[in-house]
Specification:
By secondary structure, the protein is α/β, with parallel strands linked by helices. A 3-stranded parallel sheet has the order 1-2-3, with helices on one face. The two termini are about 20 Å apart.
Length: about 70
């Protein structure tokens, strides 16, 4: 099993986006683990749109929507 682990994406701050190489690796992983600080729910949706299972926890700068949706630990 190939896992892609990312964290602290802090998007969409200042129109940030994931680098193309990172997106390519996420697309080939069997699952994506995000260790918090996505910031906005749309970032989680974008990761889920890559077609891989996404397992995420909330971070201290995540929106209220993410705070309500994601666990503190997994």
């Amino acid at each position: 099993m190939l896992l892609a682990v990312i964290a602290d994406t802090h998007m969409p701050r200042h129109r940030r986006r994931l680098p193309d190489e990172c997106l390519a690796r996420l697309r080939t992983a069997d699952a994506i683990l995000h260790a918090g600080d996505l910031m906005e729910l749309e970032v989680l949706h974008d990761l889920q749109a890559l077609g891989r299972p996404v397992h995420a926890v909330r971070g201290n700068v995540d929106s209220a929507q993410l705070q309500a949706r994601l666990p503190a630990q997994k």
